[in-house]
Amino acid sequence: METESEPYVRLATLRQLHQVMADMNTARSLADTLQTVADGVVTGLGYELACVNLVRPDGDLVVAAFSGNSAAEALITGRVGSRASWDRRLAMGEQWGDLVFISHTEGWVLDDDDVPQWYTDGPAPRFEDEWHPSDRLFAPMYSAGGPGGSGELLGVLSVDRPRNGRRPGAWGREALQVYAFQAAIAISNARLRANMQRALVRLEREQQALRASEESFRQAFEYAPSGMAIAEMGGDQHGRILRTNDALCRLLGRPASAMRRYSFSDLVHPEDIGTLLRTSAEGGRAELRLGRRDGTYVWVSLRNSVVADAADGPRFLLTHVEDIEERKRRELHLAHRASHDSLTGLPNSAELRSRLSARLCRRPQSAGELESLDAAYGHPAYGAGHGFDFAPGSAAYDGYDHHVHTVAPENDRDDGTKGLAVLFCDLDGFKSINDRFGHNAGDAVLIEVARRLSNGVRDGDTVARLGGDEFVILADGLGRADAQDLAVRLRNEIIQPIRAEGRAVRVGASFGIGWAHCGMTADEVLKSADERMYVEKRSRPKQHRRAG
Known about the structure:
There is one protein chain. By secondary structure, the protein is an alpha+beta fold. The chain contains 19 helices and 18 strands. The chain has helices at residues 5-24, 30-44, 70-76, 83-91, 104-107, 170-205, 207-222, 246-252, 256-259, 264-267, 273-278, 325-339, 349-358, 367-377, 395-398, 430-437, 439-455, 480-494, 522-539, and strands spanning 47-55, 61-67, 80-81, 94-96, 99-102, 136-142, 153-162, 227-232, 241-244, 285-291, 297-308, 315-323, 419-428, 462-467, 470-478, 498-500, 503-505, 508-516. The strands form four sheets. It has a seven-stranded antiparallel beta sheet. The chain has a five-stranded antiparallel beta sheet with strand order 9-8-12-11-10. A four-stranded antiparallel beta sheet has the order 14-15-13-18, sandwiched between helices. A hairpin with an 8-residue loop joins strand 8 (227-232) and strand 9. The longest helix is centred in the middle third of the chain and has 36 residues, at 170-205. It is flat and about 90 Å long.
């Protein structure tokens, strides 16, 4: 079972992974891009060694970049391995999705072939999943289309010696696949930018070079695997699209004639218009959504550069549009896995605390701070348990009263106050199901309880699994009677028979109702609801019920 610390570790790794991916797309040259790719494996993915083997025009692979060991880098950088030897490597071992893992038990047959390689020292593995010094892990990089489509092999990432000493698990493998996918895009983009820059240099030197390179530019534009567009720059028609290539038309499902009626500001998702406007014309880059003809949106990486029609002629905006829908989908999937329970799909403990904390502002820390705030605003700044972090420069300091305070009923009767109710739910009799029928039956019960809780609340309410057989519901806008009614309805749903492992079982449920208000921490709110739940349990007469 996943520990509570693992989601935080994954989120930290994911943030670092996003950063190294962004660095790949800002490198100034192909060589810088390749080195950034190798360095990113070491700094972002947790491996001690990484090598980028790049496919040459003749098909063989050259060691183009190395990271993690300066001695090994000097030894093998620039050396070439034949394509046949690489094809042999990629066809053997275990297939981990798009990755290839070759265990030391069969990789010894590769020790004497012509592929440049290095050797690491270390003890033999003590555990089944421990990394052996002679284990090999490869991440092939393909152009658009991937290994199962029309994409061609661009190169292979070789990684070695994970810092934790173990073979990567499912999350680590998926992270490496996503990284290799993005690295292939960055290398393709770097090559394309290099070709474009060389063409532009020739265009600026002389008229004859301009005419000679126009055809090269046209082919690079028309036949580029990713979307390209030329737009007006300056004047009343600034940003209007003048020309697009087939790849962009296919991506957006719009004919070239229709594209000329738009600018990118007409096509961008309304939520991303600010991102587009903040993108500078020269060298600007943004990730945003563009509208398709069918009304859907696709995530793209948009990069701008400026080209001139002649030496001193009008300037145009050259926009490179790369489809990143798959990468965004994987990023969102990784983020969801880090913030949600893997068994039930509900928000996990970390996500629950994050959502709860977002509703609560902090109370002033001292009487002096409270008095100074009262004097500054001419009225009490703190009352009924509400307060702000009033540090200069904070949102509360700059925009007092913009925050809608979270309030709670003040006593045990329903006084009409509507607040944020926190229902702490603990299953009764769940342990006996696990003991008698096994963990598969227990898991089936938890999944069904999660489903019933989710169906029993309103849209916008949060149902989270805190851990084990404990669940928490956040329901806003409820009075005390409303919260009690909700707890009764949910309990009545839970106690209905549940099919688990071919038999009907029953569990009970105890609910504790707490209330969140500004000035409390998320942990204080959860503790209050938990304590009320145990008070309810002690106050009920003991019942003896069999699990099935």
